[in-house]
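Human: Respectfully, please carefully check these tokens:
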Amino acid sequence: MAVSAIPRWLIMSVTTIVFPTYNERENLPKIVAAVFAQPIDNLRILVVDDNSPDGTGAVADELASQYVGRLKVLHRAKKGGLGTAYVNGFRCALDDGADFVGQMDADFSHPPEKLVELQAALKDCDMALGSRYVTGGMLDTAWPLWRKGLSAFGNFYARAILGLAPRDVTGGFRLWRAAALRAIPWERVRSNGYAFQIETLYIASRLGFRMREIPIYFSERHAGVSKMSLQIQLEAAIQVWRIRFAFRDLQAVPQPVDA
């Protein structure tokens, strides 16, 4: 693409995708290559590894030497949870000058080819969400009906209690404007499991952030074992009620959108 054809709001912009990893040795090299294959200028990756027993951290370091200046690794001493991994990653990405910060899983459940569409959506919104529950979105066709039903109910449950407009409130494939991330009161975020996705979306909603949902096909992971469990799902269900009353004082904060 010629420089003159690039929208002004994208020129020289840095996009950093944050990958929290725990035992993703098989998936990480492939997902990194797939992300870097996307036609996005100044694209970077930040891997936040929780001292994975399978050696994911060492694999990430090898990738950092392969993609010099484009991939960075943040090593944490132990498994600290999804929420704190993302908070640490967001802060690091912002400190390194990112204009847009993405969050996605390293197991190919989130399609890398949708990153371009998510970034384009940020022209007129503060946060773009990869959504399984809007027209064109879909769950893996191989999932059994009970699993699809549980996922759909989890979304309905959180949306109903919190009054959220987006259709997919538990998904973790998102792209944020840096200004929006900086406006989040991270010191008040308490969820550290999958409820983290619900809590951050609710805060963004309370702050009046403009959101757009982009349909995605949510696939089963390519390799490894899912971290989702019944305990995690029950914890998220309980956390929704805490979230409902924790942020009633938040008011809309206008976010600038470049032309």
